[in-house]
Amino acid sequence: MDYSLDRRATLIALFQGKASAMDACDADPYLRRAAKHHGERTQRPCPVCKKNKMVELRYAFGDQLGQYSGRIKSLAELDEMENEFGEFRVYTVEVCGDCGWNHLVYSYLLGDGKVRKPPRKVRTLEDDDWVKR
Q1: In whole angstroms, what is the distance from residue 103 CA to residue 40 CA?
Q2: Over residues 68-84, mean pLDDT
Q3: Which of 4, 24, 97, 107 could form a disulfide with 53 if both were Cys (CB 3.0 to 4.6 A apart)?
Q4: Between the CA of residue 64 and those of 10, 25, 38, 83, what are the distances in Å?
Q5: Average pLDDT over the chain, rounded to an integer
Q6: Cα 71 to Cα 16: distance, rounded to the nearest angstrom
Q7: CA 65 to CA 87: how far, in whole Å?
């Protein structure tokens, strides 16, 4: 699904003064940090501040992903996952590291169509009691 019409409407509202930059450039600090460290740079300039620091993040969600649902994935990782899981949805978000503009660009389904159980939960540091204290 392409969200370019929604993006366009948001930008028009911003430039016509019907919305404030505070509303349009409201990237969460976690999203900005993820964009800084894990984002893939694009050639598109930011539509708000016009600087060339736009990056894309791809989040993968799906029941078959188990505890790995909701994580950021690169295009190479998504290519591998496409044959490992039956169905999952990818959301691509664009983020400007300078002004905080962020918008959902598009979402799409990936997978090979075979229903699978989620992978077994792997114990992480977050599961240990000493981390929770």
Answers
A1: 15
A2: 94
A3: 97
A4: 34, 33, 23, 12
A5: 90
A6: 36
A7: 9
Beta carbons of 99 and 49 less than 8 angstroms apart: yes
pLDDT of residue 129: 61
pTM to 2 decimal places = 0.83
Q: Which residue has the tokens 């959301």?
A: 91
pLDDT digits (tens, 9 = 90+) for 90-114: 999 999 999 999 999 999 999 998 8
3-state secondary structure of 88: strand
Sort 101 into a burial class: Cβ within 10 Å, 0-12 / 13-18 / 19+: buried
Strand (E) or helix (H) holding 41 = strand 40-41
To which residue do tokens 């969200």 refer?
3
Kindly state the tokens that stand for 24: 């349009």
Residue 122 exposure: Cα atoms within 13 Å on the Cβ side: 5
